[in-house]
Amino acid sequence: MINQKICLKRPVSFNSPDTLDIRIYDSFVGKIPVISVRDTTDFEQLVTNIAYKGVRPDGIEKTGASFISGKTTRFIILSAKPYSNVPASELGLSDGNAWCEKSLLLRQAHECTHYFTKQTYGISNNILHDEIMADFIGMYEAFGFYKAEWFLRFMGFIEGSGSRLLFYTKNLPENVRKAVSELAVLSAEGLERWSKIDIFKTMSTDERIRQMCRMGFEGFTLL
Prior knowledge:
Blueprint: H1 2-5, E1 21-27, E2 30-37, H2 40-51, E3 65-69, E4 74-79, H3 96-121, H4 128-143, H5 148-155, H6 165-169, H7 174-194, H8 198-201, H9 205-220
Helix pairs in contact: 3-4, 4-7, 5-7, 7-9
C-alpha cells in the first residue's frame, strides 16, 4: 500500500513489511496519519525515498522520526529505534523491547509538539528551547512522568549514548555554549518539578505547551 500510494516513484524493498503499521493518530493537534516502522533499514529507506528523493542523507542512522509536510500531504514516519540511541540499560529499564515501543510513542508526541507550535504560532524552530519542550511532552505522553536525568542523557549532558547537544551548540563560542548548557540543565530540572505539582496535572497537553511557550527558556529554570 505504501509503495502504491506514497512511494510510487521510489518504491521501497521492505525487509519486514508485516511490521509496518499505518493509522490515524487522534493527537492533541488534530488527526495525523502515522506510519510506524519497526525495521531500522525499512525506516531509513522509507524516509530517504520520501523526504530526500532517494538520496540517502548523512546521519540518517541517528534519525528516529520524520514529519512529512507538503501542500497536500501531512504525516509522520516513526521508527522504534531506542530514543536518541540511548539503550534501555542507561535509563535503568530492563526490557529493551518495551523501551523501543515507548521510544516510538515519545517520538510521536515530540513531532506533534513541533507541529502544534507551528500551527499555533506560525513557527517551529529547530532550536534547543523547542527540543526541551518537545522532549518534555514526548516523555510525559509516553510514560506519564518526566525525568530531567533522562532528558539530559538523550541530549548528551550525561556521559553515555546521547549526542544531540552538539547539534544545537556546535557553532557557539565556548563561553556561550557553557552558559546555554547550564541553562538547559536548570530548565530540565525546573520542568520536572513543574510536572509534579497539582495544577500541572489538571492541564491538557496543549495547555502545557502554551504555558511553556509563554514561559520561555529562562522561565523553565524558575519553576
